[in-house]
Amino acid sequence: MTVSLSELNRARRMVRAAVCAGLIGLLLAGCQSKERTATLLRLQFIDDTLLNSNDELLIANGNAVRGIHAQVEKNRRQPADTLVLRQAEAVHDATRALVDQLRRLRERLLRQTDNWQRFEHLDERQAVAALLQTGPPGARVADTLARRLRAHARLLQPLVPAASPLPSFDEAEMPVVGALAALAEREARALLLEETALAYLSRQVSSGTLTTRWRPMVTAQASTVAPGATYRAELMLARVLVSASPRLLTMTADGQPVALDSAGVGHVAFGAGAPRRATWQGRISYRNYGRDTTFRITVPYTVGPVK
User: Fold this and answer.
1) Residue 62: what pLDDT?
2) By C-alpha distance, which of 138, 116, 139, 143 is closest to 127?
3) What are phi and psi of 219, to 5 degrees?
4) Are 176 and 127 in contact (CB under 8 A)?
5) DSSP annotation of 20
6) Cβ contact 62:95 at 8 Å
7) Residue 47 Ramachandran class (φ > 0 left, ψ -120 to 50 alpha, else beta)
8) Domain coordinates of the chain in residue numbers?
9) pTM over 0.85
10) CA–CA dist 295, 87 (Å, integer)
11) Straight-line distance from the first to the last Cα atom of the chain, in angstroms, rounded to the nearest whole number
């Protein structure tokens, strides 16, 4: 059976979501049961799985920032797009710094519990508690990490309003494998928040899609022809621009917005008023890779009989 890349990514997101929904907390509670060894091994499996997934997400988020940068360049570095790029870079730098801090703490835990060369002491607890409580009150390792997690959540809150704050690191006594899995969980949460924020920012600079369609069109010299006179018109096959985004293709008639149909054709309608000869001003604007192009046309028309 062949698994597509999108299906694989969905499976990975499900693993992350399951862990972030509280799976680790349930397993930590299980550490007090008779199945301690099995629970510790499950925690080790979760830790390894999350770390591999987090490494992939780190690369993907870096590529997302590069994609935003490329789109900004394609849009000729419009001021608004440049601001979005700076936001994306700030989000990525802050997330990377948080991940680095979590990885450094992971390394210290492994070294202080004698698990650096080979993972053998899964249930070591005293060294974990001692490390988290290192430092003066208010500046302990656990306190510093908690502040960093809160700061990261505040940074991303405007971009991901529905996101919940990153939980602080639990200071309760826990085995080293549980502490490592909890660190990987915080890391996964931070990376998922970054992924969501970067997806939102990417949409802000996307040029969207402007396509073209062939459409038969007729332009008559007059809609009314006297008996015996010659009717004249221009028949043509034209290509019309079509866009699903109102940011890219807009039309107005005398300054009023004109609705576009699915074929990219605007339909103008307004009250004619008193009998007279008059004109209306049409305006068609579209944006292509950051450059705005506008066409203007003056259309004459006659209301009622004019002598």
Assistant:
1) 95
2) 116
3) -125, 110
4) yes
5) I
6) no
7) alpha
8) 5-205, 210-221+234-303
9) no
10) 34
11) 79
- Separation of alpha carbons 24 and 212, rounded Å: 52
Whole-angstrom distance, CA of residue 169 vs CA of residue 149? 9
Nearest Cα neighbor of 296 from 307, 272, 280 is: 280
Distance CA 307, CA 305 (A): 7
Where is pLDDT greater, at 209 or 66? Answer: 66
Q: Please say whether the beta carbons of 100 and 187 come within 8 A.
A: no
CB 279 within 8 A of CB 298: yes
Q: What's 23's DSSP letter?
A: I
**For 245-270, what is the mean pLDDT?**
84
Phi, psi of 280 (to 5 degrees): -130, 150
- The helix/strand/coil state of 282 is strand
Which DSSP string do the residues of 67-120 spell out, in sequence order? HHHHHHHHTT--HHHHHHHHHHHHHHHHHHHHHHHHHHHHHHHHHHTT-SSS--
- Bridge partners of 215, per DSSP, are 238
Integer-rounded Cα radius of gyration of the chain: 31
22 CB-near residues (< 8 Å, 6+ apart): none
User: What band does 116 get if pLDDT is binned at 50, 70 and 90?
Assistant: confident
Report pLDDT digits (tens) over 256-266.
999 888 777 88
Which of 28, 17, 73, 68 is CA-nearest to residue 193? 17
Angstrom distance (rounded) from CA 191 to CA 197: 10
Split at pLDDT 50, 70, 90, the class of 253 is very high
Report the relative pairing of strands 256-257 and 249-253 from DSSP bridges.
antiparallel
CA-CA distance, 178 to 127, in Å (whole number)? 13
pLDDT tens track for 30-81: 545 556 666 667 777 777 788 888 999 999 999 999 999 998 888 778 888 8
